[in-house]
Amino acid sequence: GEDVEQSLFLSVREGDSSVINCTYTDSSSTYLYWYKQEPGAGLQLLTYIFSNMDMKQDQRLTVLLNKKDKHLSLRIADTQTGDSAIYFCAERGLWGSSNTGKLIFGQGTTLQVKP
Amino acid sequence: DSGVTQTPKHLITATGQRVTLRCSPRSGDLSVYWYQQSLDQGLQFLIQYYNGEERAKGNILERFSAQQFPDLHSELNLSSLELGDSALYFCASSTGLQGTDTQYFGPGTRLTVL
After folding, report:
1. Residue B6 pLDDT
2. Closest chain A residue to the Cα of B104, Cα to Cα
3. Which of B42, B48, B56 lies nearest to residue A107, judging by beta carbons?
4. CB of B49 within 8 Å of any CB in chain A?
5. Least CB-CB distance to A43: which of B48, B100, B105?
6. How far apart are CA A32 and CA A87, in angstroms?
7. Maximal C-alpha separation, chain A
8. Can you give the pLDDT at residue A102?
9. B83: buried, middle or exposed (CB in 10 Å: 19+, 13-18, 0-12)?
10. B66-114 pLDDT, tens digit each
């Protein structure tokens, strides 16, 4: 069935790089997303990658996708204290299936950035 | 600001009661999604509407129902509330068209059932 797994916690020092990992099971996933949730706030879209891509870079964010291993990672360069939040990866299935639009989320990774 | 609005921000009610959560999508978006975020279940998809019609259904309880109105706003109705329904309820919207169809989330409604 559909499942998305993430490690629950990551702690880094300010200025270091953070790498948040995610694995998924649905081989028909077409788009994979990273969302950020700050305390008391909604989900903010950070970036996404289409399943036929290996990598996408957007300023300090780099997304790597290993489709064979169904492994997705989000690298944040020069991590700042303002990056402290919960990061969710999510997959979306094949367009036109009965679950069109449904996002399957991981449990979220809490990123703690120490000054 | 994602452009998706949800009201109310907080809701406190008692078991057995019924509540209505409201969502207004981003301008131009035809699709609305409802998700529930709880400590034990994480973020779960409940239901999706596209231009007034139900498009996909997830783990939505029979006590819960939703609809999307002609002006595209949506309401999620929760009835016979139980303690376990306490959660953060998110609405998201997207164009609903094939392609990236990115979902943008509202700030959520925090429901507390006492």
Report:
1. 97
2. A45
3. B42
4. no
5. B105
6. 13
7. 47
8. 83
9. exposed
10. 999 999 999 999 999 999 999 999 999 998 777 778 899 999 999 999 9
Q: What is the nearest CA distance from A18 to chain B, expressed in angstroms?
A: 23
pLDDT at position A94, please?
63
A48 touches chain B (CB under 8 A): yes
Share of chain B above pLDDT 70, in %: 98
| Contact (CB, 8 A) for A18 and A83 | yes
For residue B107, whether the previous peptide bond is cis, meaning omega lies within 30 degrees of 0, is no
The tens digit of pLDDT for each residue in B70-79 reads: 999 999 999 9
pLDDT of residue A97: 57
The b-or-e profile of B21-34 (16+ CB within 10 A means b, else e) is: bebbbbeebbbbbb
User: CA-CA distance, B38 to B91, in Å (whole number)?
Assistant: 14
Residue A103: how many other CB atoms lie within 10 Å: 26
Taking each continuous run of H as one helix and of E as one strand, the counts in chain A are 0, 11
Residue B55, CA distances (Å) to A51, B47, B104 in order? 23, 8, 18
Chain B residues whose CB is inside 8 A of the A43 CB are: 90, 92, 105
Tell me the two tokens of residue A87. 């990061």
| b/e burial code for range B57-78 (CB count within 10 A of at least 16 → b) | ebebeeebebebeeebbbbbeb
- Helix (H) or strand (E) holding A92, with range, is strand A85-92
pLDDT band at A95; cut points 50, 70, 90: low
